[in-house]
Each structure stands twice: as C-alpha cells, then as structure tokens.
Specification:
Layout (H helix, E strand, L loop, with lengths): L4 E5 L6 H14 L7 E5 L2 H10 L6 E4 L16 H7 L3 E4 L2 H7 L3 H13 L3 E6 L3 H5 L3 H12 L5 H4 L3 E4 L13 H19 L1 H4 L4 E4 L4 H8 L6 E4 L6 H10 L4
Parallel strand pairs: 1-2, 1-8, 2-3, 3-4, 4-5, 5-6, 6-7, 7-8
Helix pairs in contact: 1-2, 1-12, 5-7, 7-9, 11-12
This protein binds 2-phosphoglycolic acid (PGA).
The site of 2-phosphoglycolic acid has 13 residues, from β8.
Length: 253
Amino acid sequence: MRRPIIAGNWKMNKTSSEGVELTKAIVGLGKGLDGVDIVIAPPFTSLAAVCSTVKDSPIKVAGQNIFWEKSGAYTGEISADMLGEIGCSHVIIGHSERRQFFGETDEMVNKKISAAFSAGLLPIVCVGETLEQREAGRAKDIIKGQIVNGFKGFDNSAASKIIIAYEPIWAIGTGKTATSDEANEMHAYIRSLLTDLFGAALAKKINILYGGSVKPSNSNELLSKEDIDGVLVGGASLDADSFISIAKSALNR
Ligand code: PGA
C-alpha cells in the first residue's frame, strides 16, 4: 500500500515571514493527520525559516528546484547539498514552469535527479503534456519520452526513491482539472512504463501524484482512484485550510 503524499508547491509566492505564518497554520491544522505525508515547497528565501518552523512536526519541506553540480561558479544556482543541510527532505524537479520558462530538458532533469540522490533528497519529478499535444493524440508519447529520458541510468535502488507528479500543463493554474478517470488512465500508463523500466514489484511501490488545479472540491474524487497516490497542489496550497482539507481527503482512500 502506497502512503499518500500531499505536496504544496508555493511557486514564487510568500515572503519568508509570510511563509512562516502559513507554515505555522499548516502545522497546527495538520496535527494528528497520520497516514499521509505532507510536504511543502516554499521559495528558496523561506526554506531555512520554514524548516525550523516544522522541526517538531511531521511536515516535510521541499525545494522547488536545484542545480546538478555540487558547488562552483554557477551564479544564482542552489545545490542539493545546500537544501539537505538546512533540513529539506524533498525537491521538485522538472516542473513544467521550469521546462517552459527556463528551458529545462529531460537531460537536465536526469542530472538533477542524480544530484538529489547524492544529497539524500527525494525527487518529486514532474511530467506533463500541453493541450496541443493532448489534442493531437500525443500525450502518452510525450509522457513516455519524459519518463524514459528523465530516468535513464538509474538502478532499482535509486528508482525506488523517485516520486512522480503527473501534471497536464493545460490543467495548471487554469481551473481546468483532468477528470479523475483521465488522470487515473495516465497514472496507470506511467506505472506500466515504470514496470517496463524497473519491474512490476518496484513500479507498484512508486508514488504517482496528480497536479493541476487540485482543490478541496475535487481532491476526494481524484484521490479515490487506484493509481492516484497523492497530489501536488499549487494555488490551493497557499491557504492552510484548503491545503489541509485536501490532505484530509487522502485519508478517505
Ligand atoms: P495549480 O498548480 O494547483 O495552481 O494548478 C499545480 C502545480 O503547478 O504544481
């Protein structure tokens, strides 16, 4: 049985002090929510303060990105070790906004996943197709390319630490959600790709989260599906009440 993961991607929102306030509210409302892993991903400037705010709680903290090198002349970049040292346990890699606005490719995603492993961070690897690609009937091919190229070279022990987030780009921040059946169908397809790559036993253990306009009104339905093992929430994670109410829907699975 996969333990559900509810992750909040704050994107470029919240100053450090605002982030600490939001975190305190999440810690408070999230008390006693056993049976689900809650992860929050604030911007870099809030990470240290948020990590110390969650210290005595089960809430985990993720970075939203890393660079693949360990250190050096890479102005503006942050390494996996830097996140690990301040208390992050996870890192989001290959979010569609990074792919779209910052030119991230599957090869870069692959190097970033390796860097996360060497620092002991659990990567939340995002994949997803555009509306155009879906309408052209290419969604599965696109996802296959992202998975096969993104996960190239990893053995089973590394692969067992990967978390995948399927985020159809047309559903991000648009208010349009994939129906739970559409999402589950793609999740099952992703699991079949993982079976080809790493074998059925391991594929069954990997968490596949859904992301794209997840909110309290649709999270129950999405999380009731067999292959949807959690959600990656953007907009609705900026409000502690809605984020925790989404987390609670994972308990009804
Ligand atoms: P959204 O963002 O929930 O605001 O659609 C999801 C994401 O991009 O991770």
